[in-house]
Amino acid sequence: MYKSVVIGTGPSGLTAAIYLARANLSPLVIEGPEPGGQLTTTTEVENFPGFPQGIMGPELMLNMRQQAERFGAEFRSSWVVKADLSKHPFTLTLENGTEIVTESLIISTGASARLLGIPGEKENIGRGVSTCATCDGFFFRGKKIIVVGGGDSAMEEAHFLTRFASEVRLVHRRPELRASKIMQDRSRENPKVIWSLNRAPIEVIAGDRGVTGLKVRNNETGEEEILETDGVFVAIGHNPNTSFLDGQITTDEQGYIVVDPGTTRTNIVGVFACGDVQDHQYRQAITAAGSGCMAALDCEKYLEGKMVYDWSQSL
After folding, report:
1. Pairing of strands 5-7, 105-107
2. Which domains does the chain have, with CATH numbers?
3. Is the peptide bond preceding residue 261 cis, with omega within 30 degrees of 0?
4. What are all long-range contacts of 46-55, with beta carbons under 8 Å and residues at least 24 apart?
5. Can you name the residues that pair with 76 across neighbouring β-strands?
6. Given CB 3.0 to 4.6 Å as the disulfide criterion, which of 8, 41, 105, 121 pairs with 109?
7. Is the entire prediction scored with pTM above 0.85?
8. Across-strand partners of 239?
9. What angle (nearest 5°) sits at the alpha carbon of residue 137, between those of residues 134 and 139?
10. Which of 84, 132, 152, 293 is catalytic?
11. What does the pLDDT look like over 111-125, one tens digit per residue?
12. Is 135 part of the annotated catalytic residue set?
């Protein structure tokens, strides 16, 4: 029996673990298949407060993990395949069949960026392929960039990247865009944005120094060509990692966990959510860490019997 279990070890999960451990709650942290979360796939992080010279993503996550361990957090390398939240205490089943019982639960499993699934993509993440313009745009100052996608997210990323790049090419596999008209108009009015519609990406081309181009197929003629670029930003959406919950937690239409506004409380008493699994707007390391702090404080108050609000009005 654990007082609290944290699922996930990105900035939100590790921050929650630090706070819970310092409160002498001895949390168990289940690392999952990608310990450290998406920051472990990035290179230099320049926008996390406290590091004026920047810090490598894996190093930042390792520092957070060691900080949580210092205060008594326990880590287990596994992942949760099933969660029984129908009765209290909760029961979690790990991939090897082990069952863990806990009085409270913090879900910080994040959201995985959807990828194109083409050759050269995964192996070049951090070498020119990115899923976060806010995180990596600065590194492409004065360079040519390709943004793949046709929705509002792609338009927003393209518009943001024009602050740094000399050219931003929007590549979409259909002749028409899914983005709202106002977002399309904003991109079309930007002189740095050029268009390659009705083009299907089929391979990321890279050399010793990283990405050099994106091979695409013209869906009308069938012809293939290589578009020269220094970076490929994939903006086709994210999938929140909630499948193991089997619909027990209230989510929005995109699958993100819904929390009581201003808190990290879910529709189930004693279950809290933080980080990208409940945030489809900001998706930054610092906002994830902040929500991890909130989740730990909410959880601590719950365990102390100080959580005061009408549970009958829960989500």
Report:
1. parallel
2. 5-113+238-313 (3.50.50.60), 122-234 (3.50.50.60)
3. no
4. 46/138, 47/134, 47/135, 47/284, 47/285, 47/286, 48/285, 48/286, 49/286
5. 30
6. 8
7. no
8. 112
9. 135
10. 132
11. 888 899 999 999 999
12. yes
